[in-house]
Amino acid sequence: MNYYLALIVLLPVLSFITLLIFGKRMGEKSSYVSIAAVLAGFALSIKALLYVMDGGHAKIAFTWLSIGNFDVTFGLLLDELTAVMLVVVTLVSALVQIFSIGYMHGDKRIGWFFASLSMFTASMLLLVLSPNFIQMYIAWEGVGLFSYLLIGFWFEKKSASDAAKKAFLVTRVGDLGFVIGLILLYVTAGTLDMDKVFAMQFAPVVAGTISILIFFGAIGKSAQFPLHVWLPDAMEGPTPVSALIHAATMVAAGVFLVARAYPLFEQSPAAMQFVAVIGTITAFMAATIALTITDIKRVLAYSTVSQLGYMMMGLGVGAYAAGMFHLFTHAFFKALLFLSAGSVIHAVHSQEIFDMGGLGRKMKITAITFTIGGLALAGFPFLSGFWSKDEILLGAYQSGHMAIFWIGLLTALLTAFYIFRVVFIVFLGKPRGHHSEHVQESPAVMSVPLIIFGALALSAGLIGSPLTGNAFQSFLTGGHGAEHHPDYMVMGLSGAVALLGIFAAWLRYGTRLLPANIISKDNLIYKLLVNKYYVDEFYYKYLVKPTHAIAQFAYTFDQRVIDGIVNGVAWITVRFGIGLKRIQTGYVQGYALYMLVGLIILIIWSCRVLGLQ
Amino acid sequence: MIPLSYYLTLSAILFGIGLIGVLLRKNAIAILFSVEIMLNSANLNLVAFSKYITPSQASGQMFALFVMAIAAAEVAVGLAIILMIYRNMQSIDLDKLNIFKW
Is there a contact between A258 and A178 (Cβ–Cβ < 8 Å)? Predict the structure, then answer.
């Protein structure tokens, strides 16, 4: 019946295998295979979405292996949440891969690049289609692996391979919590099948513990405080990778996980509170850090962290559909921002915003699409980000989390400010740096995806806006979500702060009205922000260094004690050898004597044993 | 009739002489002779046991004949080897033949 679902996952896998074998020979043509696979996946995802919109659900499952009473099933699950994610993942992946044709042009490992993107897409699709936690965990690790491989795609650069390792290890910390959560879930529920688990009623403490442990996985993957440190470093990867993996899809997997396990989270108010608080802290902290960053991709990375925090905040305050809605709109406008930034980097050959400037006149399409992305991110009224952010703030407001609401609003202000700081510095003013003098617009293969994303960033929010009766939200909640009346106070506030933030950025960076040194660089807060709250330094001092010390101890122990034992054995053997070689005289008669002695001993011994006299 | 033990004692003495010869003589040909003495002491044992234990069958004597034939062949090979050693080393003194020393 719904075996085309399996095809959605299998097509990119097939493309991966093909490119693994022929990628080197195909070179730049690799992209066609990979893009064809994902476009077919997109078409099938649309089919799946239409099927779900008609009220259909699908579940395919078969027993993969059974150990005693423990059955591991494999399968595919299609419901509203999955259908939305399928469309987002395949669409973003397809556009990003088309963009990559231009961006990665001439790279010597381009076949491997598209192979990795294919397999990443397959893992991500498997993740969203998982009907049980084990399969989800496998896919979860799969996306992590390909994230690692793609961050370190230019592994010749030490910073890139370091960043890849950091990303892998930091997310690993979260995954450990996830695994413990799953084990605990299995012990208490006796199954890891989502349908069965979600139908059960747990004690609040049990549900809370399991939820929070599972949430640790989301903290790692979605770069939530305190495990957010890997995402900005992950910008060492190629920009399309940042757009696909570290903005639109994989980092949203954590949000998806919480959304998927929502029935479990809902059973524990404490766990929900925890999610909301972590999300709020992350959103605010990352937004403040983004104010001082001068690397265009890192600004976007912190912005991603911040927006992921928003989504978590939405889920945590109970605005389930709003959180997912923000994931949906964010995927488009953040991918747009990253790809536009990629287009800029491609032209300027630098990521420093102060090497750019005045690009608006030379790169019109990029400038417009980046600005649209920026407006959507800032929550400029009636763009996609506005609707989803507003929904989250509304959720916080209505659930009575006033502190979270106000911090969220403040974060929205900061968001508008930092993104337009970049817009004004990069696209207005005079060219800085020798490259920005003679830049050109990127080729069509890059600008067309930008335009499509631009259109999505403008309009994708409408399907969840009050204008369409919150169609997205009621679809996601299966029609149960009450169609709430728009709260014009919240909407007005969030629109106002967006405009205020943009205006402030214009005042500071778009004009010369304010002196450049309006904020002292010796300011304590400025120092705190430039150093990203010293989180990395904290980890270095209290985690990395002690680990190194332990490793050093283990190394010494291995060198001295373990190797000492091994060498000691060898030394004793050598000594014995030196002693015993002296009986190898070379005199044949000597050997005859040994034989005689041996024979006599043998005779005496056999007489004793056999009892002969 | 001479008791079996006499034969066995003589055989043991011959074997001992042969053994001491093998172990102590330096001349390769003398060692080959000593080996022959040891073989003959064994032959003597075979014949003696045959006579005392299965007098009706001459199996021990048959064995002795085979041993002699093999011993003759062995001496032929042994002498050939000694000849080759002499050609290479200009000596058949076994003390000089310690090239397999460590």
Answer: no
Are residues A392 and A469 in contact, defined by beta-carbon separation less than 8 angstroms?
A: no
Cβ distance A586 to B101 less than 8 Å, yes or no, reads: yes
Question: For A96-145, how does the pLDDT look when each residue is reduced to its tens digit (9 = 90+)?
Answer: 998 888 888 888 888 888 999 999 999 999 999 888 888 899 999 999 99
> pLDDT of A143-188, one tens digit each?
999 999 989 888 888 888 888 988 898 888 889 999 999 999 988 8
The A residues from 565 to 594 touching B (CB cutoff 8 Å) are 581-582, 584-589, 592-593
Q: How far apart are CA A274 and CA A331, in angstroms?
A: 24
In sequence order, what E strands does A468-613 have?
none
Instruction: Note whether B24 contacts A: Cβ–Cβ < 8 A.
Output: yes
Give the closest residue to A244 by CA, choosing from A337, A349, A359. Answer: A337
Residue pointed to by tokens 């930008």 = A450
State residue A179's pLDDT score.
Answer: 93
Alpha helices by DSSP H, listed for A428-470, are 444-459
Query: Which chain A residues are closer than 8 Å to B31 by Cβ?
Result: 589
> Where is average pLDDT lowest: A300-304, A484-488, B14-18?
A484-488
Q: Are strands A70-78 and A58-67 parallel, antiparallel or unpaired?
A: antiparallel
- Nearest C-alpha in B relative to A591: B23
By Cβ distance, the residue of A584, A586, A589 closest to B23 is A589
Question: Which chain B residue lies closest to A587 (C-alpha atoms)?
Answer: B98
A449 pLDDT band, cuts 50/70/90, is: confident
Query: For position A23, what pLDDT does the model report?
Result: 82
Interface of A with B in 591-610 (CB under 8 A): 592-593, 596
Q: Which amino acid is at A591?
A: Y
Q: What is the CA radius of gyration of chain A?
A: 30
Tokens at A292, concatenated: 């001082």
Phi-psi region of A80 (alpha: psi -120 to 50; beta: other; left: phi over 0): alpha
Domains and CATH numbers, chain B: 4-89 (1.10.287.3510)
- Which tokens go with A526? 């400025």
- What number is the ipTM of this complex? 0.76
Distance of CA A316 to the CA centre of its chain: 20
Looking at chain B, which residue has its C-alpha nearest residue A579?
B102
